[in-house]
């Protein structure tokens, strides 16, 4: 369309004179239906406001009351117990956004199309967008002005190579500006991030105490799991509170040089969460989207130095070295434009890291590494030390190559676990005994179908099994790996143990294992090789 | 994701033994909320089935009862008057699809991802798809297995030049196979179609009686308006019933050689309607989508010869001759692959055709042309005669160039109106007097702001004003043009009259006119020119 739609407001008609008597007033009603990311408005079919042609099925409406307004999808109702004539129902989160009482008067109008719809249409037509176009789109995305259809159109139209690297920089910049931007008034502010896809990869919970103990500022705000069986925030939540008011979070960082909290309260790059709500069901994770998502969060959090972990392997997000190098160069280009010092490391992503998959199992592994327990998974320890070493090397006073031994000294000396305990106390500790973790009591084991060497562990399938078992919502559910790549097993040896707390979850996990156990047993020479730095 | 999700069924747990007691049974309940194209299932938050991790917010579920199954989006409810524990609510159309009574036992399972999701992901990754891929996708689209997000991803990923012309042919073929395919056991079976975008362009209602009176088979099934103020079916509905059982429709065509009915009952290319539900809000109408949409409907209807009208003009869908020629070649390529004889005509799309915009106003214009009334709009008459002439020339016994005069003789002699009256009687006539049409009684006129020549009429804005006035739902609402391109007007002369039946509609239309009246007044030399065949 070349011209913008005219957005009229519903007017009431005086029944006696037939004349317009101003915008129609409806009584707001909270409808206790949880429609999640989509605001829904419910209007009775016989309501005079609905009859107008402007209010057609599924068109978006704008509801105004008390100085607030929300956009919502319209559903038409034929049941007066849900909404009556003269009432306007709102789904739960939409009602909360209005901030008024049940019965408050509201007006309803046909929603204006989002201001950035012209820019979206130009991108759909294959045109290149400028910084102001991305600003307009991201503002509308952040303010929930886009429908699911428009959001999907944006993420698909910016998928693959549809954005050039300059546009990726614009998108990143626009995403940063749409939320809060922290300034810690010192340098370096160090952070690390992994592009994801490897279960059990909880290095942040080791790196933050090591780096903070070294004295570097490391304000790590973490996400909850999106498609994985545990995020850093889910795992940390086994040990401490993670949903802290933003001011408390800042105080903790200033006092302890680090934190391990959920980033949701900080409002950093809020458009990211909205875009993920459509990227996830499509399994879309294009380089442009990954770069904008990760760098916008980190730069908004005030980071000046970032160590980025790109794991490669047959079931990792990135499956070959050329692909990893191409992604690295895009990250580096955008980071340079944003004046972020970026250190990309390409790591072994052939299998899960550590033994446990799921919040409590991963918290157990982390605490064992911190306490230098002989049962600690060595791969997790080594990877965390190497990444922490890289971060420490961003201090001006550390020589290249010395970071690893500094990190190892901090861990071995107990300074890391002491720092971790400080952070746990500051965030509000929870009871957790890693020697006797209260794991889900319903279990089954998956056994080797034949003798041989473990030559394949499918990251995706193991993550799926852990999720079906209940992780991350059920903290003590998940998968405990009893063998890793290269291990020799006899037929009938347990490969891993599934923990669940509810019979239906156990059944879901069992059905997933029946489809594929996620392990291959073969010869030693069948173990895939990757040539990575570490 | 490289592996398919395992789709588990929700199992009930025996409260005493903690053991699985088979798939959980819930009582179906009709929830009287109209969610339109989206099936929604409502489950109480405390329902044991919901607690399982598999049933997360907004995930798709599959509901089975009585041998039927539907896929639905899950909403969680906290109000027992809407659904109670142990009940499974379904939105209105979803409930109807189940074909059971309230309270019928049903099971609910996590929905399997659509079978074609792998092909969709390959197209999102930029790969070329084969015929079987398109068949799988279109089957899932037709059977409502795709969510709005997946549908949008498909239409955006096949937008612009993402499909090569061979893929457009595959898509067209797959769309035909997904529905009913008619065979009239004779040749030629003639049809005409316009790509749309020009208000008042009701040539079909003239061409069908002319061509059928000539003796050619012309089984014209029409659509209702999608974004326009009237489709052929909406306009014909002023004169006769258009929603006929498919068998009656076939009988009428065999008896009268033509019909003017709504195509919805014939189930021709049903995926088209589903795809349009997301293309429309995005204003997506790429050449590939247009070709597959139009040709699949026509070929499924058994047409062997098609005259295709591509109007060009500053506010038409196609705005330049090179663009029209490019579109023409794509239509011709796919038509040739499908063995459809196609005749493309590029026509003047600078302004609406005829005077009326809206079902009753357009029916008035059509009947005046058929009755050779001096008040008939000459542009509509001329365009219809030329298109009918082209169709008649597809008869083996008509010489090239003779079609127009044959069509004119049929119209002038009264044979066309006689054929139209036969079709109206056969479909079931309604009372309509074109001399005294019962137009919407609430009116206002838009007057020329200055003296000059009408040098621009915005098709999009006039369509929008007619829609706000109530068309096509309110049959007697719309816009009646009192001047056309090139007409001289004085300041204050009426340019057009708006008709509405409801005060709120009149107000909507008035607000739209305040934004833009859609007419430009200037000098005679400012009238845009197009060089088209007719």
Describe the structure.
The structure is a homodimer of 534-residue chains. In chain A, 36% of the residues lie in helices and 20% in strands. Chain A has 534 residues and is α/β, with parallel strands linked by helices. Chain A has 18 helices and 21 strands. In chain A, α12 links the parallel β13 (305-312) and β14. Chain A folds into 3 domains: 11-110, Beta Barrel (Barwin-like endoglucanases); 190-427, Nucleoside phosphorylase/phosphoribosyltransferase catalytic domain (Pyrimidine Nucleoside Phosphorylase, Chain A, domain 2), CATH 3.40.1030.10; 442-526, Alpha-Beta Complex (Aldehyde Oxidoreductase, domain 3). A 6-stranded mixed β-barrel of chain A has the order 3-8-5-7-6-9. In chain A, 57% of the residues are buried. In chain A, α4 (131-142) crosses α6 (165-177), α7 (204-214) packs across α14 and α7 (204-214) crosses α16. β4 (33-34) of chain A pairs antiparallel with β7 of chain B.
Which secondary structure elements does this structure contain, and how are they paired or packed?
The structure is a homodimer of 534-residue chains.
Chain A: E1 11-13, E2 20-23, E3 26-30, E4 33-34, E5 40-44, H1 48-51, E6 60-65, E7 68-77, E8 87-90, H2 92-98, E9 105-110, H3 117-124, H4 131-142, H5 148-157, H6 165-177, E10 190-194, H7 204-214, E11 218-222, H8 232-236, H9 246-256, E12 258-262, H10 271-279, H11 287-300, E13 305-312, H12 321-337, E14 341-348, E15 356-357, H13 359-370, H14 378-392, H15 403-412, H16 415-427, E16 442-447, E17 452-457, H17 459-468, E18 478-481, E19 488-489, E20 494-500, H18 503-515, E21 519-522
Parallel strand pairs in A: 3-8, 5-7, 10-13, 11-12, 13-14
Antiparallel strand pairs in A: 1-2, 3-9, 5-8, 6-7, 6-9, 15-18, 16-20, 17-19, 17-21, 18-20
Helix pairs in contact in A: 4-6, 4-10, 5-10, 6-11, 6-12, 7-14, 7-15, 7-16, 9-16, 11-12, 14-15, 17-18
């Amino acid at each position: 369309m070349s011209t913008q739609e005219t957005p009229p407001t519903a007017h009431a008609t005086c029944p006696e004179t037939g004349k317009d008597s101003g915008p129609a007033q409806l009584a707001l009603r909270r409808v206790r239906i949880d429609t999640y990311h989509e605001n829904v408005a419910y209007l009775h079919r016989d309501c005079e406001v609905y009859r107008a042609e402007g209010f057609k099925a599924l068109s978006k409406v704008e509801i105004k009351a008390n100085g607030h307004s929300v956009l919502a999808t319209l559903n038409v109702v034929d049941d007066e117990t849900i909404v009556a004539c003269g009432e306007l129902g709102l789904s739960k989160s939409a009602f909360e956004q209005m901030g008024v009482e049940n019965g408050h008067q509201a007006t309803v109008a046909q929603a204006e199309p989002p201001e950035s719809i012209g820019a979206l249409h130009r991108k759909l037509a294959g045109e290149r967008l400028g910084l102001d176009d991305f600003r307009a789109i991201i503002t509308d995305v952040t303010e929930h002005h886009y429908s699911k259809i428009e959001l999907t159109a944006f993420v698909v139209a910016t998928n693959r190579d549809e954005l050039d690297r300059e546009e990726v920089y614009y998108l990143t910049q626009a995403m940063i500006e749409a939320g809060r931007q922290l300034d810690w008034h010192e340098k370096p502010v160090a952070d690390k991030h992994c592009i994801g896809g490897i279960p059990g990869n909880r290095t942040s919970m080791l790196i933050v105490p090591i780096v903070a103990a070294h004295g570097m500022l490391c304000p790590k705000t973490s996400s909850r799991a999106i498609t994985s069986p545990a995020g850093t925030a889910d795992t940390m939540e086994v040990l401490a509170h993670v949903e802290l008011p933003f001011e408390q979070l800042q105080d903790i960082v200033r006092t302890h040089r680090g934190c391990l909290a959920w980033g949701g309260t900080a409002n950093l790059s809020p458009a990211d969460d909205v875009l993920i709500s459509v990227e996830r069901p499509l399994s879309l994770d294009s380089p442009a989207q990954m770069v904008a998502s990760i760098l916008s969060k980190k730069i908004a959090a005030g980071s000046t130095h970032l160590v980025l972990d790109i794991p490669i392997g047959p079931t990792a997000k990135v499956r070959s070295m050329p692909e990893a190098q191409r992604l690295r160069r895009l990250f580096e280009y955008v980071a340079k434009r944003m004046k972020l010092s970026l250190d990309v490391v390409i790591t072994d992503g052939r299998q899960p890291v550590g033994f446990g998959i799921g919040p409590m199992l991963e918290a157990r592994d982390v605490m064992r590494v911190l306490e230098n327990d002989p049962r600690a998974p060595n791969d997790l320890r080594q990877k965390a030390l190497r990444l922490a070493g890289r971060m420490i090397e961003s201090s001006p006073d550390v020589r290249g190559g010395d970071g690893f031994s500094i990190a190892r000294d901090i861990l071995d000396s107990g300074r890391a676990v002491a720092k971790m305990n400080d952070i746990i106390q500051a965030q509000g500790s929870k009871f957790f005994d890693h020697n006797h973790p209260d794991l889900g009591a319903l279990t089954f084991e998956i056994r080797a179908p034949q003798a041989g060497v473990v030559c394949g562990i499918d990251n995706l399938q193991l993550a799926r099994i852990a999720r079906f078992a209940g992780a991350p919502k059920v903290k003590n559910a998940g998968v405990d790996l009893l063998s890793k790549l290269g291990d020799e097993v006899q037929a009938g040896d347990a490969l891993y143990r599934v923990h669940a707390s509810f019979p239906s979850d156990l059944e879901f996990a069992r059905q997933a294992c029946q489809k594929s156990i996620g392990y291959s047993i073969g010869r030693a020479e069948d173990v895939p090789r990757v040539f990575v730095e570490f």
